[in-house]
Amino acid sequence: MNEKFTPLLEKDRTMAIDALRGFALLGILLVNMPTFHSPFLYLDSFTYWPSSMDQFFSGLVELFAQSNFYPLFAFLFGYGAMIIVERSQLKGIYFPSFFARRLSILLIIGCIHAFLIWNGDILITYALTGFVFILFYQLSGKALLRAGIAIYCIPVLLNFLPLHSQEHFGENPNAIQSSIENYSNGTLIDILKQRATDWTYMNFEISAVILAIGVLGLMLLGAAFAKLRWLVDVDKHKRLLIGLLIVGLLFGLVARAATSFSAESFFLMVLQEQFSGALIALFYMTSIVLMAQTKIGHKLLQPFTYVGRLSMSNYLLQSIVMTFIFYSYGLGLYGSISYTTGFVLVFAFFMLQIFISKWWVARFQYGPIEYIWRWATYGKKPTFKKRKMQH
């Protein structure tokens, strides 16, 4: 490899994309928080947190965050991958082999995260799905768009095949007790075993495949948006973005509300799970991109950009800090706080991430994990500190 990528200059960064990454990290922490501090995988939240306050905040997360942010992050992964495609072509670097190296390092990071830090990792899925993405990167923007939509719809059909039991999920008192004992009082070995058990439960049978197919579709959609420059040439595509915003909001809320009125319909439940999150994510994405074009929007979104520029490091930092707070090798508070307390903790910690990230990006080219990822990919130590302080 004769040439390497240099860090994106400030003028070349798309502010809205960094803001979207930061916003997605806030949403991901909101969704992940109950799993950090409780046996959320195995419980019924209505009986576990019966207070009206807990139910109120749980309902807010269910409506505005649940299943809305992993689609956004997967979309952004595909968007970023296409930026790498474009930069590799300019540098004369063969994208498939370069990207495969990046994905291999990401897979290692994901495995460390999933089995040594927290079981709810998504990086393994992104890494494995990314290898399939390589088969599609040469398609045109419109072809990527069509392929992304078609592939994203496949899990709807798979859910109707007799490949897995609908009874897999549900309240499990024994699993609840085991989780609380192991995470709040267990040894490191106990926690390691429980983490592996939880990861296996989350990725049982066909569910991991269904998730990966959906993620691939979202990655292709992100790549399509990048190739078509819809989020860069905003003035040129403003009517389209406003239309997508309206579609995302209206149809997303309709799909989200559908199961509330027909909770026993498996068909509606599948549609809701597959489409409401992606549609609401579309609404969030287009809203932020359009907001970033205004002075007040730019100012409001600026704090999210600091977090978004260090997205990998901040994602892992959330897991490291939260497991320290709740697991026995740290403060051991697992199973002892309410849903409301966890909800408040999300915003308190995210504010801290904003301040830390702002300080960091003023001094360093990359986040710590991004730096290691880059070093491992190239096999050559990149420049870490910025030459001049930027304010």
Question: What is the structure about, briefly put?
Answer:
This protein has 391 residues and is mainly alpha-helical.
Description:
The protein is an all-alpha fold and 391 residues long. It has one domain (10-378). Helix content is 71%, strand content 0%. The protein has 16 helices and no strands. The chain is globular and about 55 Å long. The two termini are 34 Å apart. This is DUF418 domain-containing protein. It holds the Pfam family DUF418. Keywords: Membrane, Transmembrane, Transmembrane helix. InterPro entries: Bact_Transport_Assoc, DUF418. It comes from Solibacillus isronensis B3W22.
Q: Beta-sheet strand percentage?
A: under 5%
Query: How many strands, which pairing sense, and closed or not: the largest β-sheet?
Result: none
The average pLDDT score comes to: 90
Could you spell the SSE succession in H and E letters?
Answer: HHHHHHHHHHHHHHHH
Model regions low in confidence, pLDDT < 50 over at least 5 residues: 8-12
Question: Topology, please?
Answer:
Elements lengths: L14 H23 L7 H4 L3 H13 L4 H23 L3 H22 L6 H11 L7 H18 L14 H13 L2 H15 L4 H22 L9 H24 L4 H26 L3 H14 L2 H16 L12 H23 L6 H11 L13
Helix pairs in contact: 1-4, 1-12, 1-13, 1-14, 1-15, 4-10, 4-12, 5-6, 5-16, 6-10, 7-10, 11-12, 13-15
Descriptive labels:
391 residues, single chain, 16 helices
